[in-house]
Amino acid sequence: MSKTLKLYLLIIYILALIIALVFAINYSHGFNFVEVAFFTVSLLLLKNSSMLFNSISNVFTAMILPVLMTTFVYLNPFWVGIIAAIGTIEFKFRKTGFIWYKFLFNRCVFFLSGGIGALVFKISSNYFGGNRFPFLALFLASLIYFVVDNLLVYIVLRIAEDDLNNTSLFTYFQELSKNLVTSYFLGLILFASYKYFGYVFFSLVIILLFIIKDFFYSRIQQLNSYTQIIESFLKVIDSKDHYTEGHCKRVAYYTYHLAKKLGLSRAKTEKIVNVAKIHDIGKIYVDDDILTSGEQLSNSEYKEIQRHAEYGYKLLKDIDILKEELKVILHHHERWDGYGYPEGLKGEEIPVGARVLNITDSFDVMTTGRRYKPALNKYETIQELKDCSGTQFDPEMASKMIELIDEGFFDNSFQSEEMLNEYEFSIEY
């Protein structure tokens, strides 16, 4: 452990102790043993049950903030901090075992974020929202809890250089922001159930949420299966043609950045990127001599290799989880002017994902070359994209690709390992 990390942990320990003393002096009155015990036990069960519940899929989650939102309203900051610190203890330790300084750090972080969130609620509820159903005060308290909790964790990960891959603070919070929105609305449901119906109904709502989560995580497992299918097909491609496997990874990387530049939704982007990883899977049906030929292809050989798009589509069309984006594989060699293959689609008749893949696939060919054709440099590549805009490529997409190049996205060797590692993080985070 570095000296900087030790100093940071020490600061957090001392800060938590000081704030605990301040809260104890000013906000420990009004102790209600039944409420404190109920919420602490509820949080303990939720924290550990959530972990066990998702152990098969390796997705760990817990409804910490939704439970704490109710405590913001009914308990003082000191007791909310105590509930947050104790109620988030994990009884099932992972392979690393029990590490005391991490355990203590987590307790301090939860105490600080829970207690400060409760303090914000206490102050803000005096100015707006009232006591009946304080939507805004609860949102501010939840927001502060979210910021304090994740900021303290981000800093320790940044110092330890652990799992962040140079992710900016803005990107880190942007990725986690959906958790805040989901937790806030779940918290409102739990608060309403407790306010109007008490302990029993609060517990029943939690059980209902667990049932709903069961369906949600079945979807997560389905997506995990999707990823495994993609990785398996990549291995098949690699066994057929080592160049094609590296090509597919690079194209997926370019596809991610272009789709993002075009403003496509995250869900749409991920689907197109996953298809990009296996867009040349149909080449497993193409003769090895054609794939590995060091000379320019004959007309008959070229027609055969053109069929790889149809081969890939036919190979995957019976896999339900892949059906939605298979048109991207089938049409990724269609041209904007209608002279592509296999169906000669034109303009916006071509699926969006196929238009993206047409450019990114071609871009990789330009920048890596072929056995019979040398790679283009940056300026030649930009000129080629300009020349083919409106004929081979969607003009808007060609323009966006040029912008990405001008902005320096692909300056560091278009096929470097660093680039591929950055891509993997961007998608999987």
Fold and architecture overview:
With 429 residues, the chain is an all-alpha fold. The chain has two domains: 3-222, no CATH class; 241-428, Hypothetical protein af1432 (Orthogonal Bundle), CATH 1.10.3210. The protein is built from 18 helices and no strands. Mean pLDDT is 80; it is low at 51-61 and 413-429.
Helical stretch count? 18
Over all CA atoms, what is the radius of gyration? 27 Å
Structural class from helices and strands?
mainly alpha
Number of strands: 0
The string of secondary-structure elements, in order, is: HHHHHHHHHHHHHHHHHH
Query: Could you give the distance between the termini?
Result: 25 Å
Number of domains: 2
Report the major sheet. Answer: none
Low-confidence stretches: 51-61, 413-429
How much β-strand is present in the residues? Answer: under 5%
From the spread of the alpha carbons, the general shape counts as: elongated
Mean pLDDT across all residues, rounded?
A: 80
The percent of residues in helical segments reads 55-70%
Using brief descriptors, characterize the structure shown.
2 domains; mainly alpha; single chain; Hypothetical protein af1432; 429 residues
Describe the structure concisely.
With 429 residues, the chain is an all-alpha fold. The chain has helices at residues 3-27, 33-53, 64-74, 77-87, 100-124, 135-160, 169-197, 199-240, 242-261, 266-276, 288-291, 299-306, 308-316, 326-331, 352-368, 378-388, 395-406, 417-428.
